[in-house]
UniProtKB/TrEMBL annotation:
NCBIfam families with a match to the protein in the record: PRK00174.1
EC assignment: 6.2.1.17
Occurrences of domain AMP-dependent synthetase/ligase (ranges): 67-445
Enzymatic class: ligase
Residue ranges of domain Acetyl-coenzyme A synthetase N-terminal in the record: 4-58
Protein name as annotated: Propionyl-CoA synthetase
InterPro entries: ACAS_N, AMP-bd_C, AMP-bd_C_sf, AMP-binding_CS, AMP-dep_synth/lig_dom, ANL_N_sf
UniProt KW keywords: Ligase
UniProt family annotation: Belongs to the ATP-dependent AMP-binding enzyme family.
């Protein structure tokens, strides 16, 4: 245990010294020239001149350092009834072999590889194999449809794609081939190699010349060595929702990422090497990148990968079963998973069915943890429940309760305090600091710590405009919140049109783009409406084109189907209201912020510039008619 205040102070006053110490936890091929390179400020870089390999740090060094026979990865799949375990040696060998497969197909340093896969070990193996070669992976969540995949092909210009024949969702098999064929047809840039892991549940036809069978390719492959890369070289691109339909390609570097994540495993999560750790998320999200794959492996932990849901696979006891079976000491998931469990097992009776004495901490992130869920989890599990706040962009927690440095008393509704490296400020629109207790925009003073995004993939202008322009010298988080009298941070919601559905980030703009393409829709807006289970749900408000007299129900159904086909089931888009007009200012601007507040159940002041105040009443009525309690 250490002293948070001292760590925090040092990280801001002497960032180079602080992170140089943390960098000793990583094996470097060449040590850095500069820890913090400010020569191109405000575009800061970490560990310039340093060289390393991230996969080596995740695997080989542990094999060489005495962990060869320790479990590295446990795959538990209640949806298939399968269980598979890899020691560090076995995982290293599988990764080296798959790196050989990629290399034989011409993938090398700097090339992009799309990984579009369900939660199977091959997804982690593919990611690590890219890292081994110095190639750049871009994982696309399996719940996205072909059109979203095509956008990522066009932006990342991948040389190869690694995929699987199917994913398994409760009650249905998700065939990947129709989805990626759609993307391959739609995109201007497509990968020339597709490597497919055939699963027993469903096998798909392979296209000769283009497609490779994972198992066959692995059987023939020669293992590939680790390629040393610059600390500042990209490790991966992860696309996340911005306010428009074009996703943002968040870039993660190799050096800063390895240093920061390895450090967090103890400082934030209080894990020691060898501990069994489980992140119940998906490798398609940043939480999965950082804490299913990279963080725990960098740190020599055993990571659990779970192909299932908190409920229905087979029941609300699934989490406790996995924690017991594998000796999990700490779990990281999203609050929505606990709301789902609580809905089905309100008294937490199933927890008692499993002996889990080793279980010591529950970590939650992805959305604000509502106090009700926090109290329920605390009471039922009798362990500390730690909310922490971060973003795809930041790669690790901006604010958390530093369990391995100095745990603080938990305050419901707050992710506690800024972590070392994060100079968090709450400001008004003019950049003035807000008094304690008053809500404002949350920004972080530059430089951001290692592991956070250095830029957007081949879009430095967009990076600047999205994050740095609004408040010079600061990174704009896009979240609003406040510090209380004790210095606890409260993060209350977004300041833009990004919504949070079951811990997944979604752009209302992307859904609007799809709705607007419906021939009967003249105008539309999408708002996130408060939902007890998923936090928010997207709701479409559409104005029909003049002269359209088809039944509204038909048009609504088509709208829902279009979003499912274009964006994917993960959008959880089921609600559309037909309205006569959208609320606008007299100059024609749609009053999004006002609708957003209304949908959140907040009191709204009718803006004086509104064109016709009655439209707001119509929108409210439509949302209530859809069953929302606002
Ligand atoms: N591939 C294909 N489809 C997927 C998918 C995937 N990988 N993941 C989800 N989907 C589908 C679901 O089947 C569902 O489809 P449906 O409309 O046919 O029912 C739809 O996308 C919405 O999924 P989701 O929002 O996950 O809802 P759900 O009802 O299936 O499950 C929870 C709700 C709360 C149980 C689930 O969201 C959950 O476990 N979330 C917490 C963990 C988490 O992943 N957090 C993310 C960041 S930490
Ligand atoms: P993502 O990039 O998908 O991880 O989503 C990041 C966004 O989710 C943040 O900008 C917040 O709006 C929200 N978020 C994540 N974790 C929390 C949390 N612990 N408290 C409040 N909001 C959160």
């Amino acid at each position: 245990m250490g002293d948070y205040t001292e760590s925090f102070r040092r990280s801001l006053e002497d960032p180079a010294g602080f992170w140089a110490d943390a960098a000793e936890g990583i094996a470097w091929d060449t040590r850095w020239d500069k820890v913090l390179d400010d020569s191109d400020a405000p575009y800061y870089r970490w560990f310039t001149g340093g060289r390393l390999n991230t996969a080596y740090n995740c695997l080989d060094r542990h094999v060489d350092g005495g962990r060869a026979d320790q479990l590295a990865l446990i795959w538990d799949s209640p949806v298939t009834g399968q269980l598979q375990k890899y020691t560090y040696r076995e995982l290293r060998d599988a990764v080296a072999r798959f790196a050989g497969v990629l290399q034989a197909r011409g993938v090398g340093h700097g090339d992009r590889v799309i990984v579009y896969m369900p939660m199977i070990p091959e997804a982690a193996i593919a990611m690590l194999a890219c890292a081994r070669l110095g190639a750049v992976h871009s994982v696309v969540f399996g719940g996205f449809a072909g059109h979203e995949l095509a956008k990522r092909f066009n932006d990342a210009k991948p040389k190869a794609m690694v995929t699987a024949s199917c994913g398994i969702e409760p009650g249905r098999t998700v065939e990947y081939k129709p989805l990626y064929e759609h993307a391959l047809k739609e995109a201007q840039h497509v990968p020339d190699t597709v490597i497919v892991k055939q699963r027993d549940t469903h096998r798909c036809a392979l296209e000769s010349g283009r497609d490779l069978d994972w198992d066959a390719a692995m059987a023939d492959a020669a293992p590939a060595d680790c390629v040393t890369v610059a600390a500042t070289d990209p490790l991966y691109i992860l696309y996340t929702s911005g306010t428009t339909g074009a996703p943002k390609g968040i870039v993660r570097d190799n050096g800063g990422h390895a240093v920061a994540l390895n450090w967090t495993m103890k400082a934030v999560y209080n894990l020691d090497p060898g501990d069994v750790w489980w992140t119940a998320s998906d490798v398609g999200w940043v939480v999965g990148h950082s804490y299913i794959v990279y963080g725990p492996l960098l740190h020599g932990n055993t990571t659990v990968m779970f192909e299932g849901k908190p409920v229905g696979t087979p029941d609300a006891g699934a989490f406790w079963r996995v924690i017991r079976d594998h000796g999990v000491v700490s779990l990281f998931t999203a609050p929505t998973a606990f709301r789902a469990i609580r809905q089905q097992d309100p008294d937490g009776q199933r927890i008692g069915d499993y002996a889990i004495p080793q279980f010591r901490t529950l970590f939650l992130a992805g959305e604000r943890c509502d106090p009700d869920t926090l109290y329920w989890a605390q009471n039922k599990l009798d362990v500390p429940v730690i909310d922490h706040w971060w973003q795809t962009e930041t790669g690790w927690a901006i604010a958390a309760n530093p369990m391995g440095i100095e745990p603080f008393p938990v305050k419901a509704g707050s992710p506690t305090a800024p972590m070392p490296g994060w100079n968090v400020r709450v400001i008004d629109s003019e950049g003035r600091e807000m008094p304690r207790g008053e809500i404002g925009s949350i920004v972080c003073k530059l430089p951001l710590p290692p592991g956070s995004l250095p830029t957007l993939w081949q879009a430095r202008e967009r990076y600047h405009q999205a994050y740095l322009e609004a408040f010079p010298g600061c990174y704009r988080t896009g979240d609003a919140g406040y510090f209380d009298e004790d210095g606890y941070l409260f993060v209350m919601g977004r300041t833009d049109d990004v919504i949070n559905v079951a811990g997944h980030r979604l752009s209302t703009g992307a859904v609007e783009e799809v709705l607007a393409e419906h021939p009967d829709v003249a105008e539309c807006a999408v708002v996130g409406v408060r939902d007890d289970l998923k936090g928010q749900l997207p709701v479409g408000l559409v104005v029909l084109a003049a002269g359209v007299d088809r039944p509204h129900a038909e048009i609504q159904k088509e709208c829902v189907q279009r979003v499912r086909d274009e964006i994917g089931p993960v959008a959880a888009f089921r609600h559309v209201a037909v309205v006569s007009r959208l609320p606008k200012t007299r100059s024609g601007k749609i009053l999004r912020a006002t609708m957003r507040k209304m949908a959140d159940g907040e009191q709204i002041e009718v803006p004086p510039t509104i064109d016709d105040p009655a439209i707001l009443d119509e929108v409210r009525q439509s949302l209530q008619d859809l069953g929302f309690k606002i």
